[in-house]
Structure formats: C-alpha cells, structure tokens
C-alpha cells in the first residue's frame, strides 16, 4: 500500500475568511480564535489603510469569536484612533458576535446600525 503524497491531500477549508468590498466593508466569516486572530488583525489594518475614512464590519457570518479575536478588533480600533477617526463600525453581526460584544461591554466601541437585534 502506497501512502498518499501530501500534495494529493486536499487542504482543509479556511476556518476564517476576510474580504474587503470596494466600498470599504470588511466581510468576515468563520471562526476567529488564537490561530486566526493575527490574520484578522492584518486584514483589518490593510482595510483601514485602503479606506482611511473608516471600515464597516460585516460580521454576520462569524460563527465563533474568542478573546483573541476580540483583541484583534480592539487593537485595530485603538491603533487607528490615534490619528483621530472612528475606524471600525459594525454594520451587521451574527447572534454570537452580538452576544460577545454585549457581554464584554465593547459593542459601543464599534457602534453602528445592526441587522441582528441585540439580545
């Protein structure tokens, strides 16, 4: 029996994806944790550089976010507050993200209209 070469083994789907729309909305989906938080912070920083007026966050497809993920959002926000603008605004959030922002008392830092009711 020949082992399957590593190149033939399909890669696991990404646990988290990010995409920036032309209008400056950052779409985040999947799981945000210690293994994906640095990728998220890089995406946030890149989006803020490309859209200096601020970035809208669509978190409606986030299925999980732990403290490392929340720390990435807060770090990006605070890094860009130094230059005098409100950089990140949540425009849509999954129930789990809405709950995390509410329970941690950080939702007001990313205040914006929501498509999901705060519970």
TrEMBL record:
Occurrences of domain STAS (ranges): 26-105
One Pfam family of this chain: STAS_2
GO molecular function: anti-sigma factor antagonist activity
PROSITE patterns linked to this entry: STAS
CDD domains: STAS_anti-anti-sigma_factors (cd07043)
Entry superkingdom: Bacteria
Name of this protein: STAS domain-containing protein
Organism of this sequence: Streptomyces venezuelae (strain ATCC 10712 / CBS 650.69 / DSM 40230 / JCM 4526 / NBRC 13096 / PD 04745)
């Amino acid at each position: 029996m020949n082992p399957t070469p590593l190149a033939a083994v399909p890669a696991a789907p990404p646990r988290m994806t990010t995409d920036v729309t032309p209008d400056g909305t950052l779409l985040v989906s999947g799981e945000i944790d210690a293994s994906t938080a640095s990728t998220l912070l890089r995406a946030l920083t890149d989006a803020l550089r490309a859209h200096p007026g601020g970035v809208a966050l669509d978190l409606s497809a986030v299925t999980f976010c732990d403290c490392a993920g929340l720390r990435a959002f807060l770090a990006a926000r605070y890094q860009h507050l130094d230059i005098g603008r409100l950089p990140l605004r949540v425009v849509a959030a999954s129930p789990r993200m809405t709950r995390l922002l509410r329970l941690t008392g950080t939702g007001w830092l990313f205040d914006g209209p929501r498509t999901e009711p705060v519970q």
